[in-house]
Structure formats: structure tokens, C-alpha cells
Amino acid sequence: MKFKLFRTKIEISYLLLCLAAAAVILDVFQGFLFCVMAVVIHESGHLLMMKRLGYFPDVIRVSLFEICILDGSRHKRTERENILIIFFGPAANFICFLSAFLLYWLGVEQTMPFAAANLSVGLFNLLPVMSLDGGQLLYILLCKHLSQERAEKYVYRVAFVLLFPLAAAGFLILFHSHYNFSLLCVCAYLILSLLTQQERYY
Questions:
Q1: Which long-range contacts (CB under 8 A, 24 or more apart) does 51-57 make?
Q2: Which terminus of the chain faces fewer neighbouring Cβ atoms within 10 Å, N or C?
Q3: Which of 20, 17, 61, 55 is nearest to 43 (CA)?
Q4: What are the DSSP calls for 31-61, one per residue?
Q5: pLDDT digits (tens, 9 = 90+) for 53-98
Q6: Helical ranges in 26-147 per DSSP H
């Protein structure tokens, strides 16, 4: 499904809509909705900072596994502007987490799943993998002292070193929590991203 909002093209995968329908049928729509809301909040943080700095994305692509913002002006921006735009994605999640957790602490128990979803999305995106915000921030900081090629190689190595213990933790959780394989799926997705070279800085 494709449409245009102002100067930005919006593309939404039909597979995502099918997954939403399946979540309704399987009676897990509330959890699915909280996760989607956390991802939308995350990307809105990026977009709001872009707009604040006077930039607009070319394409926003919503697929089954991610929301991808295609932005041709990244290389034209200053280092500070790029850091602010990247950082405000996780920051938006952490702000929502703190707000929802405060409400939970005050007795509104319904806000806990929303708080957990935002905390998970925020922390996940800070992992030092080039396709995530953490990897992008690490790359920018390394480029102050290294060439772009060496900085990219360092981020790649750090990601692999981190993902191995995460994958091991995923296996432990799988066997000790009645087959909860969510962390293992996350690791598999990130490893696949690394192996298919989908981690370059754009």
C-alpha cells in the first residue's frame, strides 16, 4: 500500500496488515498493538527532530520487521544534527517508558505493558549494530578518529562480539521459560542483518 503525505512517500507492507489480522484472531492484539505503538513512537522521535532541524524524509517504508526512513540528506547534515536525529528515537521511547511507569507506580496497572514495550524498543535500538541507532551513533563517534571504512569494521566486530552472548542468553531463556524464543529471534534477525551486509551507514 503506497500513498504520499506532503513531500514524503509512505509504503506499508501488506504482510504487516496480515499480521495485525492474525493477532486479532489469536487474541494477542493488545500486545501487538503496544509493540507497534512503541515502534511508531521511536520513529516519531527521529521524524520530529528531523522536522525541527528543517529536514524531511524521502520515503517511510513500513515492513513486517521495521519502519525504515529513507533520507537522502543525511550526508549533507552536520555531525551534531545526525547525532540528535538518531538519539531522539530511543529518547522518545524512554520518555514514554518513564511516563507510563510513573502511572503504574501511582496505581494505573494497565500502563505496565506499554512501559515495557517502550523500554524494550528503546534498549533494542541502542545495540551497537549498524542497522540500529546504537551502531549509527558508534559509527559517527568512531569517524572522528578513524576512516569511514575502519569505523564500519569496528562497529561490525563489536556487534558480533555482543551478539554471541545475547544468542547464548536466548537459548537459556528458550529452555527455561516454556519456549520463550523472542530474544533468540531478535539475535537471529540481527545476525542475518550483519551477514547480508544490511548495516551500512546511509
A1: 53/77, 53/81, 53/84, 53/85, 55/81, 55/85, 56/6, 56/7, 56/8, 57/8
A2: N
A3: 61
A4: HHHHHHHHHHHHHHHHHHHHHHTT---SEEE
A5: 888 877 777 765 566 777 777 778 888 999 999 999 999 999 999 9
A6: 29-52, 79-105, 112-125, 133-142
